[in-house]
């Protein structure tokens, strides 16, 4: 165990105590948990002086640590899910989690759609399972303190195997319904086998007014010639401190598209770690973030082109209102052997009110010479001339602003193929703008 | 009826309009001609309510309403339409979406019901056909990737759909070839009516062969310096603006 | 484009030895005892005949430095520096403070002749193009050995002299401005410099004066085991203008030498300072032995309204470069510009960029950075653009492009873009690519060799920045870039 005296803040001390008291009760994998926690404890909660957390100081954000949520009763789970709204109009296979725990009663294991298998993680950890070997697919992700915390505390989740084309989307629905603050640590593993395809939806909702602390990790291993569409919606409650990580390892000639839409939480940080391991793969990672009040939203992205001839496109749009703060940190890494890489990353931010702020840090780290890589970053207000043009056509100012903001965010949503999903996302944007007006 | 009285306007400490007086009656088509830098475009922006201009003195009344106290969208709802010299491109906003938003916003401001989608589409199609605007153009983002002529036709389409009572055409002929000029002019002429006035701002007489004005005003150094009938435009075409420059200097 | 032809000729004429300034000058030197202590600082201060306040300033800095930790940087690695194994003061023994050129050691004069630095005014005046006169302050290790055109400049009211002299002659000006842009406590190397700086240039342009000629300082490290700690202070008073150039070279040696300079620029209302650097310190050999550690703090303060500071740099030398010439845009409507070409080859490590800190209203900044990495070098652009709460209407445009030549080097871009004001508009774009095969083929098809084609295309790549340099410097810089890239193709 790490030296407890290294810990400084009450939250860090509380995390040590939480780990000490929970470790024996947590299912399986005791050794890897201990290792992860030890690594975490060496440095503690990351703060401003830690480069990757320069703009999101978790030491300051974690004033106290919420207790980890227990397993809800069947009735509690049912009630919680009944109130869930995110992407509810989209026909999909529901895989729900309440308070961080998989609601297995909600899944009809005997009648799963073709080409899909689901294994509850809790049982797998406790009893052992072949697929567990696939956990932690990206070696360098385990250096990340948020990821380490999830590995230390992960209590539940599912493992999904996709063996061929899956028609309907798979909806991972996370609902935290506790009245007082709880922490959760869920882990999802999705293995998409060679040539298979699937659409993954992920929604996160929690009750307003409580300082919930979700920390979830989705790991994806997509084989050669796979096609994976991933849509994530953060609709967390207004006091939540939401941390999340997507770690994706993608093979050759594959297509992987991911978008994260942020409309909730007091403080959020979504990390995307992507590693491309085969040639001719096409990666797209987008973000559409809407922040108001004193919200803080961080999108952090690391893409490693681990193979030649791959193309990646990253487009992050952030709208900041009130006194909110937006953060984008993106890094494209191209090692020596990844020749013919084509990588383009763009972050654009709209600042709507005087008191808001945006921090952009787009990075390129390039060791191969035959590449085309670029990044861009802009931040500024809505174009005055466009506003005038719209108003001269009779649109009131707020409406003109809304139309421009929608168009601005819309660019990040465009690639979502599933029409029902895309419309629901546009609806989320409209809802946010209505609440603003 | 539009009345402008003693309008004094500056931008960044530079005086552009110097006590301008102008009246455009209901149903009248008035042309404003003048050399570059005489303040023609400034006048159009000030009537429509662009922010950067500082109005130091004077008033602008449209049917008795004081436009200077209104936001640009309120002016639009009151009937002011400005066809921009350089229409703006708005990426991500489909032309149809934009047209619907604008039409409904104005209807709402006038206390009318929103258009139903079929009704809206019917109106757009009718107006678009006349201006030779195809469906593809309407599907694209507003003005993005449009040619100069397409942009101007899109402006006139909006004018046709929004049915304003006071239309300003700011150098609408600039950048148009002869065919586009014809289409645009026909579009404008079709909208001429006893209830609608036009202010046609142009540098050249060419446009006025197509849109024949009732009155021609000559603008120089931020003022109307001469007013006459349509023959005044021909006179200017023959003699240029030199006379007015000299008279100003004298 | 004649300059391109010149580049090609230069590339052709290169033999094995690429660094042509690597010779050594035999001069008898007087040195302070090796290592760093209060006594050494007192020794330096006494040698310079400094007043008591200056000595105190140095000693305070030294005390502070002792409490500081040497920084460790993300992308720069080097063996630990032993600060007690360095000479902090080395001056020619014969007449360390010459009154005129006749008193300067002829060996030193020969050195500058070899480097192509004109020190004799009459020769310069006899030159072909007298309108392009440049006043030079020549710093040899720890002392200034000659400053030209002092009298003519004095007629215009311009003060241009070694800073050691200015401390004695204009103590009030120095006191008012020294350390006002780069505080004594700013960073490890700036604090070290504050304690031990030996010489450098002082420039003061009075109100309303347009400096009648370019000013320049030429730095030469000659002595072994010597660190160079120069200090430059330039003040452009209201409505004045000055263009200043800085050049530097050093002999080839197997051990590393430390160069830790501090440059402070102050522009008052409506004043403009252009500061250009061609940095060509010895970069070390192909295996990474030797070379200068160039750890420099350069910062300009646009203190007055409508003031302008422009940094232009061509970085080809040094084993390690760590510098971020920055602008604090304090005055309303002030403008900061940064134009940079950084070429790295062999085992060189470059970590350079700028900071544009927008504090005043309607401040604007522009950053154009061109990085070229070859060999096994690492070339990083690191930059900060920030708008503070009150920086209404701030504007920045940044363009940084990197070019990789060969598959063993690295090019990295690390921008930090922070806006706390909604009316600020920042635009940043960056690209990394290689020389296009189509371009190469086209050039080769027209008869250029691969190396010539590379030189031609690289010159095109850096053109935007070269254009910012004064004419002769641009030509010099273009040659340097080609020389630095010699051997990188194929």
TrEMBL record, chain A:
Q: Which Pfam families does the record cross-reference, listed alphabetically?
A: SUFBD_core, SufBD_N
The record, for SUPFAM superfamilies, names: Stabilizer of iron transporter SufD
- Residues in domain SUF system FeS cluster assembly SufBD N-terminal? 31-163
Q: Where is the signal peptide?
A: none
Q: Which residues form the SUF system FeS cluster assembly SufBD core domain?
A: 179-408
Q: What is this protein called?
A: Fe-S cluster assembly protein SufD
**Gene Ontology terms describing biological process:** iron-sulfur cluster assembly
Species the sequence originates in: Microvirga flocculans
As for family, the record states: Belongs to the iron-sulfur cluster assembly SufBD family.
TrEMBL record, chain B:
Query: Is Chaperone a UniProt keyword of this protein?
Result: no
| Residues of the ABC transporter domain | 2-246
Report whether rRNA-binding shows up as a keyword of the record: no
Q: Which UniProt keywords apply?
A: ATP-binding, Nucleotide-binding
Any one GO MF term held by the record is:
ATP hydrolysis activity
Q: Please name the InterPro entries in this protein's record.
A: AAA+_ATPase, ABC_transporter-like_ATP-bd, ABC_transporter-like_CS, FeS-cluster_ATPase_SufC, P-loop_NTPase
Q: Which family does it belong to?
A: Belongs to the ABC transporter superfamily. Ycf16 family.
From the Swiss-Prot or TrEMBL record, give the protein name: Fe-S cluster assembly ATP-binding protein
TrEMBL record, chain C:
What organism, scientifically named, is this protein from? Answer: Microvirga flocculans
Q: Which residues form a coiled coil?
A: none
Give the UniProt family note: Belongs to the iron-sulfur cluster assembly SufBD family.
Domain spans labelled SUF system FeS cluster assembly SufBD N-terminal = 150-210
Q: What is this protein called in UniProt?
A: Fe-S cluster assembly protein SufB
> Pfam families recorded for this chain?
SUFBD_core (PF01458), SufBD_N (PF19295)
Which SUPFAM superfamilies does the protein's record reference?
Stabilizer of iron transporter SufD
Annotated GO biological processes are: iron-sulfur cluster assembly
Q: Residues in domain SUF system FeS cluster assembly SufBD core?
A: 219-461
């Amino acid at each position: 165990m790490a030296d407890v005296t290294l810990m400084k803040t009450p939250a860090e001390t509380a995390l040590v105590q939480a780990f000490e008291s929970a470790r024996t009760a947590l299912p399986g994998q005791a050794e890897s948990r201990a290792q992860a926690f030890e690594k975490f404890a060496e440095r503690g909660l990351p703060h401003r002086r830690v480069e990757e957390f320069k703009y999101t100081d978790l030491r300051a954000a974690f004033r106290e640590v919420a207790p980890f949520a227990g397993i809800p009763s069947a009735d509690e789970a049912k009630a919680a899910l009944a109130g869930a709204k995110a992407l509810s109009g989209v026909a999909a296979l529901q895989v729900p989690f309440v308070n961080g725990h998989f609601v297995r009663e909600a899944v009809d294991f005997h009648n799963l759609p073709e080409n899909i298998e689901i294994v509850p993680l809790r049982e797998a950890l406790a009893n052992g399972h072949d697929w567990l070997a696939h956990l932690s697919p990206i070696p360098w992700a385990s250096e990340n303190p948020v990821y380490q915390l999830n590995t230390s505390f992960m209590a539940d989740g599912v493992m999904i195997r996709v063996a061929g084309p899956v028609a309907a989307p798979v909806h991972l629905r996370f609902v935290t319904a506790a009245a007082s603050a709880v922490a959760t640590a869920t882990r999802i593993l999705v293995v998409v086998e060679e040539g298979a395809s699937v659409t993954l939806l992920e929604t996160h909702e929690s009750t307003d007014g409580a300082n919930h602390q979700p920390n979830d990790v989705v790991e994806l291993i997509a084989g050669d010639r796979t096609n994976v569409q991933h849509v994530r919606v953060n609709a967390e409650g207004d006091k939540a401190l939401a941390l999340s990580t997507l770690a994706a390892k993608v093979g050759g000639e594959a297509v992987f598209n991911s978008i994260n839409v942020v409309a909730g939480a007091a403080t959020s940080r979504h990390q995307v770690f992507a590693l491309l391991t085969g040639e001719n793969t096409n990666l797209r990672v987008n973000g559409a973030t809407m922040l108001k009040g004193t919200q803080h939203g961080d999108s952090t992205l690391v893409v490693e082109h681990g193979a030649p001839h791959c193309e990646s496109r990253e487009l992050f749009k952030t709208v900041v209102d009130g006194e909110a703060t937006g953060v984008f940190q993106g890094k494209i890494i191209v090692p020596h052997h990844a020749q013919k890489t084509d990588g383009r990353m763009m972050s654009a931010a709209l600042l709507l009110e005087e008191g808001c702020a945006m921090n952009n840090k787009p990075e390129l780290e390039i060791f191969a010479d035959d590449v085309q890589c670029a990044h861009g970053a802009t931040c500024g207000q809505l174009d005055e001339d466009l506003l005038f043009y719209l108003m001269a056509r009779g649109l009131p100012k707020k409406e003109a602003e809304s139309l421009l903001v929608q168009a601005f965010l819309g660019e990040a949503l465009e690639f979502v193929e599933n029409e029902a999903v895309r419309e629901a996302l546009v609806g989320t944007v409209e809802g946010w703008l209505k609440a603003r007006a | 009826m539009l009345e402008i009285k003693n309008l004094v306007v500056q931008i960044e400490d530079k005086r552009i309009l110097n006590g301008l007086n102008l009246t455009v009656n209901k149903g009248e088509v008035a042309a404003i001609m003048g050399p570059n830098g005489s303040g023609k475009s400034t006048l159009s922006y000030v009537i429509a309510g662009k922010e950067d201009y500082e109005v130091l003195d004077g008033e602008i009344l449209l049917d008795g309403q004081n436009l200077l106290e209104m936001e640009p969208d309120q002016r639009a709802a009151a009937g002011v339409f400005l066809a921009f010299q350089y229409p703006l491109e708005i990426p991500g906003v489909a032309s149809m979406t934009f047209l619907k938003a604008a039409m409904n916003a104005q209807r709402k401001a006038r206390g009318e019901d929103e258009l139903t989608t079929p009704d809206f589409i019917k109106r757009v199609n009718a107006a678009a056909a006349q201006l030779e605007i195809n469906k593809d153009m309407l599907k694209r983002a507003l003005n993005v990737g449009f040619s100069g002529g397409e942009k101007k036709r899109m402006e006139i389409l909006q004018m046709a759909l929004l049915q304003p009572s006071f239309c300003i055409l700011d150098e609408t002929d600039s950048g148009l070839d002869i065919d586009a000029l014809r289409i645009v002019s026909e579009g404008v002429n079709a909208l001429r009516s006893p209830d609608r006035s036009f202010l046609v701002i142009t540098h050249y007489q060419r446009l006025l062969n197509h849109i024949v004005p009732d009155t021609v005003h000559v603008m120089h150094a931020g003022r109307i310096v001469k007013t006459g009938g349509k023959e005044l435009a021909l006179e200017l075409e023959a003699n240029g603006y030199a006379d007015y420059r000299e008279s100003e200097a004298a | 484009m004649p300059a391109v032809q010149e580049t090609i000729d230069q590339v052709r004429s290169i033999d094995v030895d690429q660094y042509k300034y690597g010779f050594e000058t035999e001069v008898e030197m007087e040195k302070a005892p090796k290592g760093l202590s209060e006594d050494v600082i007192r020794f330096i201060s006494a040698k310079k005949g400094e007043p008591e306040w200056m000595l105190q300033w140095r000693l305070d800095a030294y005390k502070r430095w002792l409490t500081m930790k040497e920084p460790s940087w993300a992308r720069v690695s080097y063996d630990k520096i032993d600060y007690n194994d360095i000479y902090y003061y080395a001056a020619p023994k014969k007449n360390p403070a010459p009154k005129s050129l006749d008193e300067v050691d002829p060996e030193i004069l020969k050195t500058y002749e070899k480097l192509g630095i004109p020190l004799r005014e009459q020769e310069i005046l006899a030159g072909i193009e007298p309108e392009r006169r440049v006043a030079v302050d020549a710093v040899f290790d720890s002392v200034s050995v000659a400053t030209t055109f002092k009298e003519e400049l004095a007629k215009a009211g311009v003060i241009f002299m070694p800073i050691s002299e200015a401390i004695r002659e204009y103590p009030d000006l120095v006191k008012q401005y020294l350390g006002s842009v780069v505080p004594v406590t700013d960073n490890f190397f700036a604090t070290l410099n504050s304690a031990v700086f030996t010489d450098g240039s002082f420039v003061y342009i009075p109100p309303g004066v347009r400096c009648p000629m370019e000013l320049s300082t030429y730095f030469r490290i000659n002595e072994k085991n010597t660190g160079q700690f120069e200090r430059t202070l330039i003040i452009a008073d209201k409505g004045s203008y000055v263009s200043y150039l800085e050049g530097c070279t050093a002999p080839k040696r197997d051990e590393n030498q430390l160069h830790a300079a501090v440059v402070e620029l102050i522009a008052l209302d409506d004043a403009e300072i252009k500061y250009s650097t061609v940095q060509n310190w010895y970069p070390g050999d192909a295996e990474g032995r030797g070379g200068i550690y160039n750890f420099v703090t350069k910062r300009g303060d646009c203190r007055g309204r409508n003031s302008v500071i422009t940094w232009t740099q061509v970085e080809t030398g040094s084993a390690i470069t760590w510098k971020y010439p920055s602008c604090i845009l304090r005055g309303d409507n002030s403008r900061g510009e940064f134009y940079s070409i950084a070429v790295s080859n062999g085992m060189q490590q470059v970590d350079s960029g700028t900071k544009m800190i927008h504090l005043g209203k309607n401040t604007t900044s522009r950053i154009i950075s061109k990085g070229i990495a070859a060999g096994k070098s690492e070339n990083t652009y690191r930059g900060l653009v920030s708008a503070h709460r009150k920086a209404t209407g701030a504007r920045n445009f940044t363009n940084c492009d990197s070019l990789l030549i060969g598959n063993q080097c690295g090019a990295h871009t690390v921008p930090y873009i922070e806006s706390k004001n909604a009316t600020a508009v920042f635009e940043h774009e960056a690209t990394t690519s290689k020389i296009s095969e189509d371009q190469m083929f086209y050039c080769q098809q027209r008869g250029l060799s691969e190396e010539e084609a590379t030189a031609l295309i690289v010159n095109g790549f850096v053109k935007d920045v070269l254009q910012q340099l004064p004419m002769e410097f641009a030509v010099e810089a273009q040659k340097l870039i080609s020389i630095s890239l010699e051997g990188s193709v194929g």
